[in-house]
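User: Continuing from earlier, I have the next pair ready.

Assistant: Great, send them over.

User: Here they are, in order.

Assistant: Folding the first of the pair now:
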Amino acid sequence: MEPTEGPGKKPLMEVVLSGFGGQGVIKAGQILGRAVAIHEGRNAVMGQSYGPESRGGACKTEVIIADGEIAYPRVVAPDIAVVLSQEAYRQIGLGRPADCLLIAEEDLVQVDAEAERGRRVARVPATKLAEQLGRRIVLNIVTLGFLCGTTGIVSADALKKTIVESVPKGTEQLNLRAFEAGYEYARRFADQERKERP
């Protein structure tokens, strides 16, 4: 599947993933960065921040991907913002640059239709898709599948290899199914976008 009209592979890409503790936001950032650096031979740096709560507190990870050197290890103007909670949308989504693609969890994030007019928003029911697989905890991997299928920022093969290397033993197949669920949803999202174009 070709990615939908997203950022694609630019010489330097800045990605922010944000949500709350327990959603696997940090793990998703680690997998994305490793996939790019280890399996695609590009450069990547990742930073993370989170509240003092082990679950439920705000957390965020920033991943910068580049073909050359990365001069500054923090995201300045994200190309892609992934938000998995309403608070993440308020803090990250609404303040993002005009050309930044927003990927929002469909059931947990209510986007501001007026604020998003003319901007690209992709919504994914990551929690619901994860629940259909029997484990809500894999919503982060569903989200990575959707991110991959929507933007083409990293290859599906690189991400799948990294998922297998990064998840607990015995959960590899579950996580690969989660990735495929998000990736397939991205394909359907792209088809729907094409139908809705004038």
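And the other member of the pair:
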Amino acid sequence: MKKNILLSILLLMGTLLSYAQPHESIQTSTNNTPEQKEVIELSKQKWNWMAEKNVDSLNVLFDDKSMFIHMGGSWGKTQELTTIKDGGIWYKKAEVYAVIVNIFGNTAILLNDIDLVAVVGGHEVANPFMVTEVYIKEKGKWKMGSLTFSHLMRPVKMTKQ
């Protein structure tokens, strides 16, 4: 029984990891629509606000029902803003290698292939992630509904700065 459970977990992890790898189709398109470009620019600005710990701007961007999924847990808007403000996680630098955005009605799903340098619990770490961002357009404005970090198996590409 234990053997079957372990095998099932390993198969599931292998399947998930295969999808978390950067695929050749994940690349920045030069043929983005104006709306796609708007979301990409908003995402870039979000990384800057996170690095600067600009919780006022992030508070406007994050929907009240937004969810944040990290390697160490998941939580809502209030906890994410508190974590950023208090320095629980300092998103020091996000090096974005590729981005793709697909828009479905009033919903945009953006994938970023990044290396993230962050200070977590007082320790600087660098990790490769595929970050999924979900934005919802309400009253002409994009609001973030979800931000998910999926750890990649590739090595960190960026050099230490």
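Worth noting for the second one:
The chain has four helices and six strands. The helical segments are 2-20, 34-51, 55-61, 77-86.
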